[in-house]
Structure formats: C-alpha cells, structure tokens
Amino acid sequence: MTEVPTLEAYLRTYVAETRAALEAPYLFEALRRIAPIFLAAREQDRTIYFFGNGGSASTASHFVVDIAKGTRPSLGSGGPALKRFRCVALNDNVPSVMAWANDADYSRIFSEQLRGLAVPGDVAVGISGSGNSPNVLEAIRAAKEMGLVTIGLTGIGGGKLKDLVDVPLVVPSNSMQHTEDLHLVVLHFLMAYLRDEVPPLPR
Question: Across residues 162-175, what is the average pLDDT?
C-alpha cells in the first residue's frame, strides 16, 4: 500500500512544482507579446473577450474585474485619469450560454456570442487548461475568421489551442492545478503592469 505523504511534504512538493512552472522562460516570451496587445486594445478602444469553462471560466471573469477596474486609480486618489479597458467575460452571460447550449450545441456558446458582439481588431482570449475544450476552440476559430487577435492560456502540452491562436501561453505542467495557478499569476501580473505602466495613456 502506497504511503500518503504528510501534509508538510505534500505542500513542499506542490510549492516546488509551482515554482518550477513559474520560472520557466515561456512566461516572459508570451507576456512580452500579450501585454502590447492589451495596451493597443485600450488605446484603440477595442474590446477584449475572455472565456473558459469551470475554473477557467472563473479566471475569465476575474480577468474582467481586474483589467476593467483594477487598472484604474483608486477612487478619490487624485491619480491620473487612465483610459479604460473594454472587456467582457462571455461565460458570465448565463442566459445566452444556456440558450445556445440548449437550442444549438454547447460547443457554440462562445462563438455565437462573438459573432454578435465582436468586430475586426478586437481581442479574444481563450482559457483552457487542456487546450482542447471544444467551445473554446470553436470561439477561437470564429474570432480568427472575424479578424480578431487571438490569445490562448493553456497547459498540459497546449492541446489544439496552442497552434490555433496568434499568441499561446502554455504552462509547462501536466497538472491542472498548477496550470490554473499560473493562469492567475498571469492575470495578476498583467493587471499590475497595465495599472503601473508608464507613461499612462491619457483619457
């Protein structure tokens, strides 16, 4: 019978594996391409669409909160008036998700929303730990057909998403937990960088 590691040993292993994934060079290589895309979207009044399933759906929603609000100066701070980001989490539109899933097919829940909302030059960010979520892949295909810039956050080898998007960020881990951990690090890094980026873009 295999002995279960102690809580401390398990934690040390988990932290070490997360640190190893965090320190790999892929992170800078992807973020140096993603950050300018977000900055250009803000400058050009483009909309950034985020979407994913399960934990990735919550990350998409979290992205919108932090990018839309967290990049603004604190209320009453007297800081510079930064231009706002336009961003939407497609998984948050529950009635539309349920309608497309029920009346058409679950794989179309994001792509059909994009077809009704997005315009060329907007940005689509698909989040899928495996890189193989059919609805995320379908949305990215639709985005490319419509002339959007496409970004994929994934892991576990990258799946089909890696080769479909313009800019992939593939966490080098086969653990869904570490992959999702790193997606949140990416989110918080981008929020902080876009908030503190100098000089700020005028409103």
Answer: 97
CATH number of the domain encompassing residue 60: 3.40.50.10490
| Closest alpha carbon to 134 in 14, 13, 41, 53 | 53
Average pLDDT over residues 173-184: 96
Report how far Cα 132 is from the mean position of its chain's Cα atoms.
15
DSSP states of 17-47: HHHHHHTSTHHHHHHHHHHHHHHHHHHTT-E
**What gap in Å lies between CA 100 and CA 186, rounded to an integer?**
30
The model's pLDDT over 117-159, given as tens digits with 9 standing for 90+, comes to 999 999 999 999 999 999 999 999 999 999 999 999 999 999 9
Domain count of the fold of the chain: 1
> Is 15 among the domain residues?
no
Note whether residue 14 is domain-resident. Answer: no
Tokens (6 digits) for 91: 């998984």
Q: What is the pTM of this model?
A: 0.91
CB 183 within 8 A of CB 40: no
DSSP code of 82? B
